Amino acid sequence: MGMSDAQKSTPTRIRTLHLRQFKEQGRRFAMLTTYDAMTAGIFDEAGVEVLLVGDSAANVMMGRESTLPITTDELLVFAKSVVAGARRALVVADLPFGTYEASPQQAVETAVRFMKEAGVHAVKVEGDAELAPHIRAMVSAGIPVIGHVGFTPQSEHALGGYRVQGRGDAAQKVLTDARAMEEAGAFAVLAEMIPADVMALLDADLKVPTIGIGAGAAATGQVLVWQDMLGLGEGRTPRFVKRYADLRQVMTEAVSSYRQEVLEGAFPGEEHSF
């Protein structure tokens, strides 16, 4: 039997060049955060093209108030786990706050650890045009890089909290930052919390694929934090998040049933005993 067109056009291993081809062909791709082998395997099997080992692990896995405290050693554990669970997806790791900003050399050294010790395929860094030399140095060292512009969570204190970036006159800065990252060799640019019309300009302006989060539908790819997307968290979710399931309720009900059966002596039953 011959392969269908869909099979032919679906690579057995997603690489950076495929994302570039997707943009050129007008195709889109999906990206999700993941921090462990089991969810990585599920998302990979579901066809998600890019898995992000986000520094959001600080919030959703470690209970921290922001992404700032997570260390390279901590994030490396999550990154190794994801690489172990992924078969086809491109695995990208965030570089933690304070591990790449000081110099291009620092950026290369940290990125090398993620490539070498965890086996990720690319890294992501937050910043603006000032980060171009750091990106250039990493790319020269053979490390694929995604640049992250717009709202950059590691800079939340400097940006005055979680606010939409790139409105009005500030739109030009977002475009300039993204262009500088592309020119430095970034294979993709992620934009967070910018107006949809600015994202459309950004995607049209860049040859490399764009990734959006809270940035409208014009981007080549979209990314969400998986616990937000599947309703695992409590409290308010950001406006840009669509909840595709309510796992928190499912898990709470299941765990409550388990506990009740244990208290009543109904579990384990004969079928669960030797």
Order of helices and strands: HHEHEHHEHEHEHEHEEHH
How many DSSP helices? 11
Indicate the low-confidence ranges by residue numbers. 1-8
Main β-sheet description? 8 strands, parallel, barrel
Mean pLDDT: 95
What strand line-up does the widest sheet have? Answer: 1-2-3-4-5-6-7-8
Record field, number of beta strands: 8
Radius of gyration: 20 Å
Keywords: Cytoplasm, Magnesium, Metal-binding, Pantothenate biosynthesis, Transferase
Main location: cytoplasm
Catalytic activity: (6R)-5,10-methylene-5,6,7,8-tetrahydrofolate + 3-methyl-2-oxobutanoate + H2O = 2-dehydropantoate + (6S)-5,6,7,8-tetrahydrofolate
Cofactor: Mg(2+)
Short summary:
The protein is 40% helix and 14% strand. By secondary structure, it is α/β, with parallel strands linked by helices. The chain starts with a helix and ends in a 10-residue tail after the last helix.
Write a structural description.
This protein is of the alpha/beta class. It is 40% helix and 14% strand. It has eleven helices and eight strands. The protein has helices at 5-8, 16-25, 37-45, 57-60, 72-85, 104-118, 132-140, 171-183, 196-205, 226-229, 247-264, and strands at residues 29-33, 50-53, 90-94, 122-126, 145-150, 188-192, 210-213, 221-224. Helix 6 links the parallel strand 3 and strand 4. Helix 5 crosses helix 6 and helix 6 (104-118) crosses helix 7. The protein is globular, with a radius of gyration of 20 Å. It is an enzyme of class 2 (transferase). Mg(2+) binds at residues 55, 94, 126.
